[in-house]
Design brief:
Blueprint lengths: L18 H17 L3 E2 L5 E3 H7 L5 H5 L3 E4 L2 E5 L4 H10 L9 E10 L11 E10 L4 H17 L6 E6 L3 H16 L7 H9 L10 H7 L11 H16 L5 E2 L11 E8 L8 E7 L3 H4 L7 E7 H10 L12 E5 L2 H15 L5 E3 L6 H10 L4 E5 L1 H6 L1 E6 L5 E5 L4 H20 L3 H7 L6
Parallel strand pairs: 1-5, 7-8, 12-13, 12-14
Antiparallel strand pairs: 2-4, 3-4, 5-6, 6-11, 7-9, 9-10, 10-11, 14-15, 15-16
Helix pairs in contact: 1-5, 5-9, 15-16
The structure holds histidyl-adenosine monophosphate.
Histidyl-adenosine monophosphate binds next to β6, β10, β11 and α11.
Length: 448
């Protein structure tokens, strides 16, 4: 039967067979962020529309063309197109910016932008991002960039370039806008309609327009680096010095202006050429005016966000290692109700130690149960029938080698099984040099 309701264009289902890839990125990103002193924050999926208008900016593509906005009774809300605005709103609303600074928070969230879908560009996508509020020092810029790089390195992503730029502060921006207006004025009629308007309100946005003609016209536009004031210039030079001393390779790319209005001074992107046009896997920068703009104190801040889908496209392409998914450790094949009941009890015991145990809930015959155990890749099977119940002894079968070991169903059952299981897991680790199997047994650090 044909399904007549499909998922919306530009969205994806993340299926159980792929979820371990997401766990890998989330686990590594979280762990690295925590080593830099960041803690997780969770914010609402939707916010008042004017939060994004006032932060992301009225003249950006995101606000002008891409927001999912709904009217609910008298209010207007928008599905978050990014995580920074909501995070800063939450820091402000909950008084966290009155506490010890810097505040360092990270988030993993879905974002919504009504863009034209293509590989690596979705309408619902996911970001790992973070924000640090309180420091005006370029050392904070270096810290945040080094954090992003550590995540990419830990994920073993290769062939990725770091581009940095400075887009100045309102002081140098005013002079730069003037230069841009002069430059674009002569080609004004060729610009797209949105950019004609931007020429008056915010000419720097023309450099970020997705229209080919605007991009072509913008190619020889003046660059902001030539207009930086002394303070912004010194900030940028010091950042470069820090990056060099931390052995973080970078290229200055004066064409990076970012697509969101809140940025000041440092902006950066990590870009790969391996996945086509949507190669920016991480983007971020400093936004020293945003907190004040949203009604808070004059507190400088900065951050970045990585697109998780894009990271996974690169990781798949580069055959990066993922933390292996948990699969069935032991499958109990049962004959009759009493055997099923016993399998339930034994499964419960093993699961307390993080062992993945399954038994038949489909009422299948023993042959079909074994076939199923094979299909799901069970490491061991244990058959329980009348004989086993009578003697309180079961055979643990290693599905790979066929070897069988008898163990008693008594209060030592869990220990006996665990011995056999650990033996197998450690042997496998030796063979595969794959410590993730042990990770899977220990259920991560929590049960370690
Ligand atoms: P952004 O550059 O708009 O920055 O997005 C960050 C990352 O999200 C991009 O580099 C990309 O990997 C991913 N991304 C963006 N749009 C899409 C899409 N349509 N489909 C798939 N992935 C996408 C921000 O969102 C800022 N809030 C980052 C930031 C945090 N700046 C300071 N703090």
């Amino acid at each position: 039967m044909a399904l007549d309701i499909k998922r919306p264009n530009g969205t994806e289902d993340i299926l159980p067979k792929d979820i371990y890839k997401w766990y890998t990125v989330e686990k590594i990103a979280r762990e690295v962020a925590e080593t830099y002193g960041f803690s997780e924050i969770r914010i609402p999926t939707f916010e008042s529309t004017n939060l994004f208008q006032r932060s992301v900016g009225e003249t950006t593509d995101v606000v002008q063309k891409e927001m999912y906005t709904v009217k609910a009774k008298e209010s207007e809300f928008t599905l978050r197109p990014e995580g920074t605005a909501g995070t800063i709103r939450a820091l402000l609303q909950n008084g966290l910016l009155n506490e010890a600074l810097p505040q360092r928070v990270f988030y993993m969230l879905s974002c919504f932008r009504h863009e034209r879908p293509q590989a690596g560009r979705l309408r619902e996508f996911h970001q790992f991002g973070l924000e640090m509020a309180g420091s005006a020092s370029p050392s904070a810029d270096a810290e945040v960039i080094s954090l992003a790089k550590s995540i990419l390195d830990k994920l073993e992503i290769k062939n990725i370039e770091l581009y940095i730029n400075s887009i100045g502060c309102p002081v140098c921006r005013a002079k730069y806008h003037e230069a841009l207006r002069n430059y674009f004025e002569s080609r004004k009629d060729d610009l797209c309609d949105t950019c004609k308007d931007r020429l008056v309100k915010n000419p720097m946005r023309i450099l970020d327009c997705k229209s080919e003609i605007c991009q072509e016209i913008g190619k020889d536009a003046p660059i902001i680096l030539d207009y930086l004031c002394d303070e912004c210039s010194n900030h940028f030079e010091t950042l470069k010095k820090y990056l060099t001393s931390m052995e973080i390779e970078y290229k200055v790319n004066p064409r990076i202006v970012r697509g969101l209005d809140y940025y000041t001074k440092t902006v950066f992107e990590f870009v790969t050429t391996e996945i086509g046009a949507q190669g920016t896997v991480c983007g971020g920068g400093r936004y020293d005016g945003l907190i004040e703009q949203l009604g808070g104190q004059k507190i400088p801040a900065l951050g970045f966000a990585m697109g998780i889908e894009r990271l996974l496209i690169v990781m798949d392409k580069q055959n990066c290692d993922y933390i292996q998914p948990k699969t069935c450790d032991v499958y109990f094949a049962t004959m009759g109700d009493d055997a099923l009941n016993q399998a339930m009890i034994l499964s419960q015991q093993l699961r307390k130690d993080g062992i993945v145990a399954e038994f038949d809930v489909m009422g299948r015959g023993i042959k079909a149960q074994m076939k199923y155990a094979n299909k799901i890749g069970a490491l061991f099977t244990i058959v329980i029938g009348d004989n086993e119940l009578e003697n309180n002894i079961v055979k643990v079968k290693d599905m790979e080698t066929g070897a069988e070991t008898s163990i008693c169903i008594n209060d030592k059952f869990k220990n006996s099984f665990t011995d056999i299981y650990l033996d197998k897991v450690l042997n496998k680790m030796d063979e595969d040099d794959n410590s993730d199997l042990l990770f899977s047994f220990l259920g991560g650090e929590d049960n370690g």
